Amino acid sequence: MTDAPWALLAELTHACPLHCPYCSNPLELVRRDAELDTAEWARVFAEAAGMGIVQAHISGGEPLLRRDIVQIVEAAHDAGVYTQLVTSGLGLTSRRLDDLVRAGLNSVQLSVQDARAESSDLIAGRTSFRAKERAAGVIAAAGLPFGLNVVLHRHNLDRLQEILDLGARWGADRIELANAQFYGWALRNRTALLPAREQLDRAKEIVAAHDGSGPEIVWVLPDYYEGVPKPCMGGWGARSITVGPDGTALPCPAAYAMPDLAPPNVRDHSLAWIWAESPAFNAYRGTGWMTGPCRECPRRETDFGGCRCQAFALTGDAARTDPACGLSPDHHLVRDAAEAAGSVAGSGFAYRRPPPVR
Ligand code: SF4
Ligand code: FES
């Protein structure tokens, strides 16, 4: 029998005021008029709680662009699920946060693009840093558990210490240093975003030298440089369900890009069926699907063969060993890109474009 998932990533909308060139949303964004309504989300949370899911990341796009965000949080809370709002901070006033806390919101993860306003705004594709600073003040004043998420790449890695100082100054409890992962928008912008190895080496020294005071620091593996794949999603269909704005259910938010996956939709099936029975969630579950070096590898129960989305994005076959792995016959695809990174001038960002509006 399949173990129950632990977390639900609820992508309420792909609409967003920002245009980050590494956005984890798909290249084809869901239209606003296709989004699940309040009652449909309430049913999803009730089913999630019934399956034993304990935590929902209420995300987007920008979830605060949903006019019914308070009712959606309330539905998740009433179902008995711990809720975390994942937000750009734009539109997060203290009145709005008060309403959300009254509805049962448990924690907030705020994104920031850099430690300085000018470069943060350049990466976000619009003026936004000061609004984020105000949002951080609102979250800290509310006393909620406060995570700061920073995607790291060539254009901000050199300011890692300033980023850590910013997180401490803003009152974050935890800073997630998410080295950019290259699929979707980030793959499109890979030349501009890939850091030089020396930048990463200096960043790792800063993280290693951190004395443990202040916010907890989480370092997400820069897999292009390590020769070791990440245990992506804790394994395919092992820990987490993503439900997209239109009800598409995926084992991973980046799996939108796999054309043959045929993901199920919560409008057609129960979450329990989707998790346990759907072909999409079973496609790369466990180790039986493995090919090439993964099949005999002692690490196969540790890293699950790496990332299926990366294998698909770089080789066209999601069942191949993740090219980030040094044992993969496709490893040159990653190694060559990483080695060229320091010598190639950034080509400018292809910013995420907004989805069509209703
Ligand atoms: Fe992981 Fe497969 Fe590489 Fe082994 S061969 S380390 S299981 S990705
Ligand atoms: Fe989809 Fe890694 S991002 S499995």
Automatic annotation (TrEMBL):
<keyword id="KW-0949">S-adenosyl-L-methionine</keyword>
<dbReference type="InterPro" id="IPR023885">
    <property type="entry name" value="4Fe4S-binding_SPASM_dom"/>
</dbReference>
<dbReference type="Pfam" id="PF13186">
    <property type="entry name" value="SPASM"/>
</dbReference>
<comment type="subunit">
    <text>Interacts with PqqD. The interaction is necessary for activity of PqqE.</text>
</comment>
<dbReference type="InterPro" id="IPR050377">
    <property type="entry name" value="Radical_SAM_PqqE_MftC-like"/>
</dbReference>
<protein>
    <recommendedName>
        <fullName>PqqA peptide cyclase</fullName>
        <ecNumber>1.21.98.4</ecNumber>
    </recommendedName>
</protein>
<dbReference type="InterPro" id="IPR007197">
    <property type="entry name" value="rSAM"/>
</dbReference>
<dbReference type="InterPro" id="IPR006638">
    <property type="entry name" value="Elp3/MiaA/NifB-like_rSAM"/>
</dbReference>
<keyword id="KW-0479">Metal-binding</keyword>
<dbReference type="GO" id="GO:0018189">
    <property type="term" value="P:pyrroloquinoline quinone biosynthetic process"/>
</dbReference>
<dbReference type="GO" id="GO:0051539">
    <property type="term" value="F:4 iron, 4 sulfur cluster binding"/>
</dbReference>
<dbReference type="Pfam" id="PF04055">
    <property type="entry name" value="Radical_SAM"/>
</dbReference>
<dbReference type="GO" id="GO:0009975">
    <property type="term" value="F:cyclase activity"/>
</dbReference>
<comment type="pathway">
    <text>Cofactor biosynthesis; pyrroloquinoline quinone biosynthesis.</text>
</comment>
<feature type="domain" description="Radical SAM core">
    <location>
        <begin position="2"/>
        <end position="216"/>
    </location>
</feature>
<comment type="function">
    <text>Catalyzes the cross-linking of a glutamate residue and a tyrosine residue in the PqqA protein as part of the biosynthesis of pyrroloquinoline quinone (PQQ).</text>
</comment>
<dbReference type="GO" id="GO:0016491">
    <property type="term" value="F:oxidoreductase activity"/>
</dbReference>
<dbReference type="InterPro" id="IPR017200">
    <property type="entry name" value="PqqE-like"/>
</dbReference>
<dbReference type="GO" id="GO:0005506">
    <property type="term" value="F:iron ion binding"/>
</dbReference>
<keyword id="KW-0408">Iron</keyword>
<dbReference type="InterPro" id="IPR011843">
    <property type="entry name" value="PQQ_synth_PqqE_bac"/>
</dbReference>
<keyword id="KW-0411">Iron-sulfur</keyword>
<feature type="binding site">
    <location>
        <position position="20"/>
    </location>
    <ligand>
        <name>[4Fe-4S] cluster</name>
    </ligand>
</feature>
<dbReference type="InterPro" id="IPR013785">
    <property type="entry name" value="Aldolase_TIM"/>
</dbReference>
<keyword id="KW-0560">Oxidoreductase</keyword>
<comment type="similarity">
    <text>Belongs to the radical SAM superfamily. PqqE family.</text>
</comment>
<dbReference type="GO" id="GO:1904047">
    <property type="term" value="F:S-adenosyl-L-methionine binding"/>
</dbReference>
<dbReference type="InterPro" id="IPR058240">
    <property type="entry name" value="rSAM_sf"/>
</dbReference>
<keyword id="KW-0004">4Fe-4S</keyword>
<keyword id="KW-0884">PQQ biosynthesis</keyword>
<feature type="binding site">
    <location>
        <position position="23"/>
    </location>
    <ligand>
        <name>[4Fe-4S] cluster</name>
    </ligand>
</feature>
<feature type="binding site">
    <location>
        <position position="16"/>
    </location>
    <ligand>
        <name>[4Fe-4S] cluster</name>
    </ligand>
</feature>
